[in-house]
Amino acid sequence: MGKDKGGTMVMEQSNNLHSRPKLGTLFKSEPSLFPIGAEDDEVPNRKSSASMASPRCSNSTTTSGEGSPYIMSPWIQASPYIKSPWVINPSMLEADYGQDGLIASIVREEGHIYSLAAAGDLVYTGSDSKNIRVWKDLKEFSGFKTKSGLVKAIIVLGDKVFTGHQDGKIRVWKVSSTTSPSVHKRLGSLPTFKDIIKSSVKPKNYVEVRRNRNVLRIKHFDAVSCMSVNEEVGLLYSGSWDKTLKVWRLADSKCLESIDAHDDAINSVVAGFDSLVFTGSADGTVKVWKRELQGKGTKHFLVQLLLKQENSVTSLAVSRESAVLYCGSSDGLVNFWERDKHLSHGGILRGHKMAVLCLATAGNLVFSGSADGSICVWRREKGGIHKCLSVFTGHTGPVKCLAVEEDDRTSRKTDRKWIVYSGSLDKSVKVWRVSENAPDMKEIKHVS
């Protein structure tokens, strides 16, 4: 990574991206960006450029849910502009190339990327450093830090940001004002200090987590691995390696429920359709929970077991457009279930050589990121058949997280286009443009 005289970061791809940093480097923040002594506080603006990649044509194929579409994309070679110090020209982002492709690569040599969230023109990235970066127009816009290190989950809801951490805490941040959108201030943590004090008085509020160790039921005592929000009812769901699913009321940050949901770590939770909540675990199961009235309030009940297998469930995603639940597993498969068929099993998408670590949906598209470093782009056709449009292979490490936003600059009603952000353990975030009407491999050959 190089620096110019103005402090602008020039992004380069490292030749040693798979090597894990020493323990000491994981907790070392940058004084230039995060002032010494400023804990969980706002930080000044800092901008850095990101490397542009030449638009290239993706490789595609057609397949049903049972076919194997793994095809290497022809544009995985490094772009000649990778090491260019030029600032990104916004007109390049506005250009409609008409094909899937890599837009840019954002690299900061400070930690593996574990979490991503996109909100409009802002992108939040969390890593195993103390820092949460905020990017705008592919340049560094802001940042804030925590004591806990690894950031495993990020949720953006209006002017608030929720971050889930390795230490079991959920921290809440707020943009300080509309006049200074780059400044984020910490509001507090979940559960609140007030609720911890109130709960700690009664012995019944404690649970035994291991021999001679009791903890408050409303607190996660292991890593918060995933979060999801149901905006309509104002609830936040958090899943943890402590095997519990917790339900939080957004209005007052109160923990309404703590559910012993699984027999092993919860890797994914997603609030879906029909007031359903789906959880996936390392115990190999996918469970369905429904919020129902009980007495004067509501409670979540287990209503269905969708999957029970030996392989760990690593990721979940819901397509609200087609009302389908997708589930990624450590065996590299993506299973899916359809609401229109009473959550019956719809099929399997086979596109990866290794574990599927993350999933995302947008329109009729499904994106699956894998430990093999690739991202498969699927399109759901009529009848429930899925076609693999392309395979993105730009990352040199496992793809850990995905986020998708509609590309307002080029998207049309007849051809919706999406911007896909992929975070990897190669310490980079890559940005892709995907067309929902992308041609298949044969059509691309004819065009060229």
From TrEMBL:
Keywords, sorted A to Z: Kinase, Repeat, Transferase, WD repeat
Superkingdom assignment: Eukaryota
Biased composition (Polar residues): 46-66
PROSITE patterns hit by this protein: WD_REPEATS_2, WD_REPEATS_REGION
WD repeats: 217-258, 259-290, 306-338, 349-378
Region of interest called Disordered, as start-end residue ranges on this chain: 1-66
Pfam families, sorted: WD40
CDD domains, A to Z: WD40
GO-annotated molecular function: kinase activity
Protein name (database record): Myosin heavy chain kinase C-like
Species assigned in the record: Gossypium australe
Lineage: Eukaryota, Viridiplantae, Streptophyta, Embryophyta, Tracheophyta
